[in-house]
Design brief:
The chain is an all-alpha fold and about 260 residues long. The chain contains ten helices and no strands.
Length: about 260
């Protein structure tokens, strides 16, 4: 805890210096607030306009969490299938890479045409941005399995299923959590993009309304909210990762020596 605090003040200090520099330059050159509001103006709007954006935050959280859960579930399932069935990996892995070359902002209107303005197209957008880093991270983790341990389990007669769940899955957890952290931050971005499609609530809606009315301070408030949500999601996954990996290192991985289950 003390180590985290001792390191955390450095980026905080840099952030404060950047805000002070921003405030000073904007005041010195008398930049119009509609073009670039002062940090103090943004903070004031965030404080006084709390009632305006709170419902939007709750809507974005609901949407992003739903899409995130579905996205990481799809990502893990796809990774397992591709790893366990080499034919599928050879056939679909290149298509998996190509799928990420399609801009989501271009694909989103098509999803509205196909599925309407309900929840489904918005969740699909989030799934599309979340599943890929999870799939790639999990596949990399599966491939980094300890070879000596793999040969040992094969030598004592462990089945492919036992090898996967007792060894390969366990060794993939550090890489998998890296993908989960990336997907957690992407889920907020995906939720905001999906809200631009025609939602009634959400930070994306709040940002669009603020931009169309030239309330630039509210646009920056929306940006800050997106950043904070991304950091919260990242922190939650990081805390879960530390807990799971600590349990694993303290004996949760003892099952590697027992292949009977």
């Amino acid at each position: 805890m003390k180590s985290a605090l001792s390191k955390g003040w450095r980026p905080l200090l840099v952030l404060i210096l950047l805000l002070v520099l921003w405030e000073g330059i904007a005041r010195l050159f008398e930049v119009p607030s509609w073009l670039l509001p002062l940090p103090t103006q943004i903070a004031q709007e965030a404080f006084t306009g709390y009632a305006l954006y709170t419902p939007h935050i709750l809507s974005t959280i609901t949407l992003s969490v739903t899409g995130y859960v579905v996205g990481i579930s799809v990502g893990i399932l796809v990774a397992i299938l591709l790893f366990r069935i080499p034919f599928l990996q050879q056939a679909f892995y290149p298509l998996l890479i190509l799928s990420q070359n399609i801009p989501v902002i271009v694909l989103a209107p098509l999803l509205v045409i196909w599925f309407g303005f309900g929840m489904l197209p918005k969740v699909i957008v989030i799934v599309l941005v979340c599943f890929f880093p999870v799939t790639i991270a999990a596949l990399d983790g599966f491939r980094q399995t300890d070879r000596d341990m793999l040969y040992y389990l094969k030598m004592i007669g462990a089945s492919d299923r036992q090898i996967f769940w007792k060894l390969q899955w366990q060794h993939s957890l550090p890489s998998l959590f890296s993908g989960l952290k990336i997907a957690g931050t992407y889920s907020v971005m995906g939720a905001v993009i999906s809200e631009w499609l025609g939602a009634n609530k959400g930070i994306g809606v709040y940002m669009t309304l603020a931009s169309s009315s030239f309330k630039t301070d509210r646009v920056f408030v929306a940006i800050v909210l997106i950043m904070l949500l991304s950091l919260v999601y990242f922190g939650i996954v990081l805390a879960i990762e530390k807990s799971v990996l600590r349990w694993r290192s303290q004996g949760g991985n003892d099952s590697n020596g027992s292949i009977n289950s």
